[in-house]
Fold this sequence. Notes:
Layout: H1 15-18, H2 23-33, E1 41-43, H3 46-53, H4 61-73, E2 78-82, E3 85-89, E4 132-136, E5 142-146, H5 149-164, H6 179-191, H7 196-209, H8 217-223, H9 239-251
Antiparallel strand pairs: 1-3, 2-3, 4-5
Helix pairs in contact: 2-4, 3-4, 5-6, 6-8, 7-8
Amino acid sequence: MARGRFVSKSISLDEKVNALQDDTCRLLFTWLISHLDCEGRMYGDAQTVKSVVFPRRPISLMKTEKYLKELEKSELISRYSVNGFQYLCMKTFEKHQPGLRKDKESPSQIPPFSPDLGRSEDGNSRGKVKVKVKVNTPKGGQRTAQSSEKDSIVSQIFAQIRAYLGFPDKVSQDPIPNYGKEGQAIKRMLTRGFTREAIVECWKSKVSQRGGEFVSMTWVNEDIGKPEKQQRKPRELSTEEEIAASIKEVES
């Protein structure tokens, strides 16, 4: 994900933004933009939004939820649920991101919005709906798939990784460098029959071996299920080895 997003000066004249109830609500909307992925999406529950957007502001969850509902009512964002997870998206995101380069960012890990997934007029979320979406394959083709249980488990593991490494409470930078690559490694382990608990436990042991540093799930995928004596031991890499490893990861 990019380190930031573009905020147009036209936001100062936007009628919907200026009609929001107070400056804190306007601040939430403005700061929200910088945390959206390349498709203009992010998790939409109040707990996540507060921890990501307002980590140092004394704003309650109740107040955060109230502001999110107002943004939704003003049609500045859309909120929806897929398989029990709540997300949000900004429909005009691409329109206001003239320099957006999706090919330079990791693919969105969040399901796309559709009207069937929105909220009812009373503000309550609609029932769960499984949506068919088209996903780009590595060879450039397309396949049709339903939002699966694996995607939900991957999201849960990502949330555990961020929390375990102190994001955003203790560190400001997202510790996961490449959601696409890490997600694929997790899915490979799930396909092999390993549970979420087993994957996270193995990952934590690797993090402990590295002194608390982030460890890629590709390493976990190599060692999970092996006897400890057969597992690859961590060691310091030379600069040349780090560069070679980075190139190999990009090519894979």
